[in-house]
Amino acid sequence: MPSLTVNGHDMAYAEAGSGPAVVLIHGSLNDHRYWAPQMEPLGARFHAVAPSLRHYWPERWDGVGETFKIDQHVEDMAGFMAALGAGPVDLVGHSRGGHIAFRLAERHPQLIRRLVLAEPGGELDESLGGVPGGAGKQAGAFAAAAELLKAGDTEGAMRRFAEHTGGPGAWERRSAVRKAINLDNAHTLLGQIDERRRPYGRAAAESIRLPTLLVHGAQTQPQFVAVIDALEQVMADTSRVVIPNAAHGMSSDNPAAFNAAVLDFLGRA
């Protein structure tokens, strides 16, 4: 498994194909294996690169320390993309990885050619119609899942988190492969209690001038659609696609449609 040393940390990654680089950032409870359904289709036209973020599999982390923060992962990814030496990359982020991709576009636009935000996770602040202080269900779901994990109920923690993103029965509907990946990364929930993820704001969204594809599943939860709606209204250069027969995990729920949408977007002049 190849890796790059970034900010004193070894980041393992998967890759496929050659050509212009497309970097894929996974979300919560996942790692680079989440993108397996995308690697061959994207690799047929691009150099597809999917890293595992700091403290995710294959690393085993005990939840101790101050290095599981959104800002840490943003700067790690900025270093990773620079270390690839491929120039500006096309960047795809899903869920928590979509939030990281958004922050990268805000802070390091020179590293990115085009941006794909697949149901970026997080809350909206008041400037985008959110509640005062950006509070919402997300923090409560993280805390509840982490408490179950601390109590030794790992599967209960996975179920609670899955239902936050996918509704009742979401854990039971996941494939054995996705469940195994989530269980391998269960310990990262301890870091998400205090990851310091700021809500999306109008000024940050308006500052992003990159061509951006906003993607969501047709059967996804309302909180993800609300974020897409808000970003579409204020970001400078967006298009939007809905993946049929898919919920939050659209890239594995309906990989053929997701891959086709991303490839169509990346193929535009």
TrEMBL record:
Cellular-component GO terms for this entry: membrane
Domain AB hydrolase-1, residue spans: 20-254
Highest taxon of the lineage: Bacteria
Pfam families: Abhydrolase_1
Gene3D superfamilies per record: alpha/beta hydrolase
SUPFAM superfamilies in the cross-refs: alpha/beta-Hydrolases
The protein's name in its UniProt record: Pimeloyl-ACP methyl ester carboxylesterase
Originating organism: Belnapia rosea
Taxonomic classification: Bacteria, Pseudomonadati, Pseudomonadota, Alphaproteobacteria, Acetobacterales
